[in-house]
Each structure stands twice: as structure tokens, then as C-alpha cells.
Amino acid sequence: MRIVSADIRVIEVPLKVPFIVSYARYDVMPSVILRLRTDTGLVGYGEAVPDEHVTGENVDGVVAALATHLLPALRDTDPRNLNLVHERMGAALVANGAAKAAVDIACYDLLGKHAGLPVHALLGGRKPEAPMIAKVLSILPPEELAAQAREAVEEGFTHLKMKLGSDASHDIARVRAVREAVGPGVGIRVDANQGWRDVPTARRMIAAIQPFDIDWIEQPIAADDLLGFRRLRPHTDAVIMADEAVITEGDLARLVLDESVDMVNLKLMKSGGILPCQRLATQAALGGLSVQIGSMLETSVSSAAGYHLALAHRDIVSTELSGPVAFAIEPGDLRFPLPRVEITDRPGLGVTLDFDTLDRLTVTAKELIVE
């Protein structure tokens, strides 16, 4: 089997409400949908959702990376040979995790369709329980957050993830308002997205919000301050998760060596897809860390890829792939019987795309011959 052509679409997916984190606000989420065709007639789909603040990519860069470096490097490559696919992509271009993830996900979709198996079966087989999904709350005034939290619980969510970090002086009030709104039975986790920046601020903020029964604190300090986690660790018994700080095996090895975090949030977009994240998840588990699979607010395509990995890896204990429930409309068809997601046993990713919706959301499109 060989890849003979590729279709690259830049789409903009509208959100139900703006998504606000410490470093940006999104009213629509830009995404790159990749369609690979093979000489056997099979078609596989992948997705890249870059983030300038995390992966260092934007949609134009992803399109250029795919068209000029990654896909040409895969001429005469069997897409079922994922090790060789990643070897050739790595030789063609360093970093560019989101662009590589699009290719990786599309190849897994092709592999599953060729074998007649869902991706989770290719990765070792599924756990009995369906993955759970948390409701993500943007950075908003406390009273708005309280209202959204109550509504989320009424909808069926049992866990909430709060985005913090834009204004530390108001973050405590935000957490207090949400806890008072939902009571003691709902799990709350917080993500500063590097917004508290330095260790002294992180220490102060963690101590202030811990009385509100927080499950864990995600990325409280700057991503490039790996040693900062080691300085933070002796001053708190809170569960600390690294996210933006973990992209490569070297990043993870440093945190394991320092025994400075309890959890890591792996993302296909950061690290290049399913295969690299599967390896990172195993590395983390061997180092004594729990693993979460997160996302950049992706459509059903790469969300499904992340869920398949989580279903098949025993050491992945949490998933936060919430894009499909945050979008007003999107081209995929993942179903969410809250608080869980339904992952089928259909071959490949198990996602069917609505091409009318895809056309409506498309900003630009490009077709390439890969032969």
C-alpha cells in the first residue's frame, strides 16, 4: 500500500462560547484536516490543531510543513509502517508536532481500515469502561463561572476543569465560586496554562485554592522552567501535573529524574501523534507518573485518536478531549452520553465526516499528488 494523494483543508470551527485561557481567546478554532488516499482505494483522515504558544506552529505553517516536507518524504512509504513513517518525517523536519500528528492519525485510520479493526485494537485492546470527559470552564468572572458550573453538572458532567492564570488576584474567587456552586461531590481540577509563571506565585496560589478540594494543579509555572517543578515540589502536597513542559522524551525524563510532578498531560498535537504519545505514556508510567491525554480543542477526528489511545493504554487514567462538545458545529460524529464518550468498534478511527459541513467550514483547500 502506498499514499498516492493528499487533500489538505484549513477549517474554522465555531465555538458555542469563547474559549479563554491565560494566553489567548478563541471564538473559532482553526484546524487542518488531512485526507490521505492510497493506491488500494482506502482513505484515512488526520487533523492538526496547532498552537503558537505551545507547539510553535500555526495553520499556515502546518500546511507548508505537510506540503513541502512531510508528505514528499513519504513517497513510496507504506502508511501501515508507522515506525518508518515517523522516521522519515523526523528526518525531513524537526519539531512540528501538530503537522506530524495529522499524518500519524491518518495513517492509523488507514491501518485500522485495512485491517478491519478499530485503532484501539491495534494498540492492544480496549478497557471495559468508556472514557470520561470533563467540562472545561474558561477564564471568566466568578459569577459567570458559577452559573456555567451549575449548568454543566445539570447536563451530566461529574468533573470540571477550570482555566486560571490570567489574573492571580481573581483566581481564588473563581475557584471559590465554582466550588460553592457545585458542592462537594463534583471533581474540580485547575489549569494555569503557565499563567502563574514563577515558583513563588505558584506556591502562594496553590496554598490558597487547596482548601476547595482540588483534584490537581496543571502547569502552574512557565513551560521552560523544568527545574522550577523541583523547587516547587517540597512546598506543597498538591497533585501537580505538567502539560506544556512535556513534549519530548527528554522533557519527561527530566521530570521523572527530579521526582517533581505527579502527572503529565500528553497531547497528540504537542508530540506528533498516537505513536509518540503511546511511547511517552509508557515512559511516564515506568517513571511512576499518572498520565492524561488532553487536546487543543480538536474535532472528532483527532479527539477520537486520543480516545483510542486512552482506551488501549492501562496507565492513561484521565482524558480531556473536549473539543466536540465545545463546538457549535463540527464535521465529525463522536457521541457523548455524558459524562462519557462513546467510542465504537468501527474500523480505523470510527469517525464519519459530514462533507457538507466540512465544505461549509473550509477556508482554504489544497490537493497534492504524493506518488
UniProtKB/TrEMBL annotation:
Any one GO BP annotation for this protein: peptide metabolic process
Enzyme class: isomerase
Active site annotation, chain numbering: 163 (proton acceptor), 267 (proton acceptor)
EC number: 5.1.1.-
Cofactor: record remark: Binds 1 Mg(2+) ion per subunit.
Residues that bind Mg(2+): 191, 218, 243
Cofactor: Mg(2+)
Protein name (record): Dipeptide epimerase
Species lineage: Bacteria, Bacillati, Actinomycetota, Actinomycetes, Micrococcales
